[in-house]
Amino acid sequence: METTASNELVAFLQKQAGEYLRSAIHYDEEDYELLYLREDLSDIEADTSTDEFVAYYRQKSREQDPERPFDLGNDHCTVSIYDEAILFHFTQGANVGTIITLSPEAGRDIIEFTTKCLEQLHRNSPQDIDAVPKWLQA
User: Fold this and answer.
1) Each residue of 1-37: pLDDT tens digit?
2) CA distances from 104 to 11, 19, 65, 86, 111 (A)
3) Domains of the chain, each with CATH number or no CATH
4) CA distance 136 to 119
5) Which strands form 32-37's sheet, in the order they lie side by side?
6) pTM to 2 decimal places
């Protein structure tokens, strides 16, 4: 990603997400660029293999046309809600994409909707649920 475009994206994300912005990574077929990593997370990069992380999502981008029983068009963004982050994976082609993570507090509406769905599913589930997120235990 060109420096100007990278700077514009980071400025946009900082304006939109403020203190909740955790990281932003842009990747292509051969490489990736860590556009932003919040200061308090800098030690995470050493603990986590960014190469493996990017390789995983690069593979997800290649799976744009999986066999599926429906046609809703292209998958432009996948949102995953984890205990410690909300992850947005924007696919921009077969080998190009951008991964943005936010603190869970940034997505109160998304978290609230997901929590209500999970509560309902957990309440009506015949099996025990392991690993219930902290934000659902309240």
Assistant:
1) 677 777 888 898 898 888 999 999 988 888 999 999 9
2) 20, 11, 30, 6, 7
3) 3-104 (3.30.450)
4) 7
5) 32-37, 21-27, 97-102, 86-91, 77-81
6) 0.76
